[in-house]
Amino acid sequence: MENREIAIEVKDLSITYKSMKAYSIKKNLLKLKKAKLKEFQAVKKVSFNLEEGQILGIIGKNGSGKSTMLKALAGIFSPDSGSIDLHNRSVSLLSIGVGFNKSLSGRENIILSGMLLGFSEQDIRQKMDEIIEFAELGKFIDMPVKTYSSGMFSKLAFSITAILKTDIMLIDEVLSVGDQKFKKKSYKKMKELISDKKRTVVIVSHNISTLKELCNQVMWMHEGVIKKMGDPEPVLEEYTEFMK
Fold this sequence. Notes:
Layout: E1 6-19, H1 22-27, E2 38-51, E3 55-59, H2 66-73, E4 81-85, E5 91-94, H3 106-116, H4 121-135, H5 150-163, E6 168-172, H6 180-194, E7 200-204, H7 208-214, E8 217-222, E9 225-230, H8 232-243
Parallel strand pairs: 3-7, 3-8, 5-6, 6-7
Antiparallel strand pairs: 1-2, 1-4, 8-9
Helix pairs in contact: 3-4, 4-5, 5-6
């Protein structure tokens, strides 16, 4: 087997959330310094490498650190310690509710999202019709995104990421949104996108059959650490057994 370049390198990554309980805010409004900040370590000293072209599925129960890991890879969360190196590759995160300005129209959000992904306005405008056609939003494309249903929202998010292709695609449970027809269409498009040997993909999902079908590696996260990582079949089997 040929030696592939490393696309994603994660070393000793730790991410901690600080949260303040609502009642303590009211109680401590005048003496905020005394308010106890509750710390929750979502990711604890995680390390792994992913070669270019690999498709990694991340599974784990709620609160295991999966989405935090994805958002850290996307650059939305900064590590408290450790490092993430994407080796100068472009990256996009497909996750509902990330990166849209709700008061702008769908069309304006395509430009905004594309520029945030690092594309030039000219590149985005060239792909605009294709994105709009794929999203199937009709006249809503020129209405503010705040008027969209969650299904319309996800159609637009999916279309932008699917048509403006990046080197690394991060996907958070998005494959299950939208109506049945769009679900089929997006699943087909997803399979086509990830079959590109140069594209590296990380998918967070609870759907075992999706991960079995799409991924060539699975990482099982549990309470902020990697419990197991390897071929999908054995890892998913052990996870299913554990969750019983």
